Amino acid sequence: MLEIKDLSVKFASEHSVQAVEHVSLSVKKGEHVAIVGETGSGKSILLLAVLGLLPEGALVTGEVFFEDVDLLKLSPGQLNKIRGNRISYVPQGSGNGLNPLLRVGFQISEPMVVHRKTPKAEAWRKSVELMKRFYIGNEEQAAKQYPHTFSGGMKQRALIAMGISADAGTILADEPTKGLDEERIAEVVRCFQQLEDKTILCVTHDLKFAKEISRRICVMYSSNLVEYASTEEILSSPLHPYTRDMLMAMPENGLKFQTGFSVSHDNYEKMGCRYAARCSECFEKCREMPPVFDVSGHKVRCWKYASSD
User: Fold this and answer.
1) Are the beta carbons of 116 and 167 closer than 8 angstroms?
2) Which contacts qualify for 237-243: CB closer than 8 Å, 24 or more apart?
3) Residue 129 CB partners (closer than 8 Å, separation 6+)
4) For residue 259, is it left (φ>0), alpha (ψ between -120 and 50) or beta?
5) What are 85-114's pLDDT values in tens digits?
6) N or C: which end of the chain has fewer CB within 10 A?
7) What distances in angstroms separate CA 148 from CA 1, 95, 96, 132, one per listed residue?
8) Counting Cβ atoms within 10 Å, is residue 165 exposed (0-12), middle (13-18) or buried (19+)?
9) Strand 216-221 to 199-204 pairing
């Protein structure tokens, strides 16, 4: 359904920032995949590259196949026919994805009018139904309101409703729980769990949220994919030292974390494994960048598993 092959993103600047580096992953039809990692690891840039929404200064290489079509080779006009229609985008959870000057109901109904040619009255009715599906509350009245009257959780649920209103089969979501409290996060979890028939690629820094909504997890660190496996394997039997350290840093695991996780982009070309300087299991070979090894279907970028591939 969605296959990313050797995707890299570099921003032309004084320091020539490498935001994403040789990432490959696939998302099967109907599968829910979460991309996790700390701030600055390249998660959101990866998502925007897939959608063709990066600024002109971004150098994007690799391939992104959606239903056997390479999205990176399409013109802006061709991409516009896919975005919102067959691939929908749910932006970060601050609510900035909603236009403050337009009623929420109109914004949820607009994709139906534009992409499905649904009559406006019918689209409005369906937007109210979607708001009910995602527990907005007092939906008939809420549809007539403006975004500033909504709480953070209500805004995020409205963004999800807007994202699926045109019935796109694939949803790309960027940090849908960012800035939300535990109660609001639980509401977003319920929304995602209702989308079992959709293909979802979701970026998040929240491991607990990833556990609730995904079947597979991709772990990114310093622009690299370092591990990719089923959600159960990642959370119970992680292979990469970074993934293990990240899990140990969770409050329920005692907040046992390494200091200074992130690596300066300026140092990338001088390094081998990005995590080597902070890894307790580092050895001489780690001065070289490891490829991604396949350990019985469990993908991991670590020299420890060279003999398993």
Assistant:
1) yes
2) 239/295, 239/298, 239/300, 239/302, 239/304, 239/305, 240/275, 240/300, 240/301, 240/302, 241/275, 241/279, 241/280, 241/281, 241/302, 242/275, 242/279, 243/219
3) none
4) beta
5) 899 998 875 567 889 999 999 999 999 999
6) C
7) 37, 9, 10, 19
8) buried
9) unpaired
Position 265 pLDDT exceeds 70: no
Name the CA dihedral angle for 262, 206, 90, 192, rounded to a multiple of 10 degrees. 160
Q: What is the percent of the chain where pLDDT is above 70? A: 92
Task: Flag whether pLDDT at 82 surpasses 60.
Answer: yes
Whole-angstrom CA distances from 158 to 56, 86, 92, 143 are 30, 19, 12, 10
Strands (E), the chain: 2-11, 17-27, 32-36, 58-66, 69-70, 87-90, 170-174, 199-204, 216-221, 224-230, 293-295, 298-300
Q: What is the mean pLDDT of residues 250-273?
A: 64
Please report which residue ranges of 15-102 form alpha helices under DSSP H: 43-51, 76-82
Q: Which CATH number fits domain 2-86+169-305: 3.30.9.10, 1.10.150.320, 3.40.50.300, 3.30.470.30?
A: 3.40.50.300
What pLDDT is stored for residue 151 in this prediction?
87
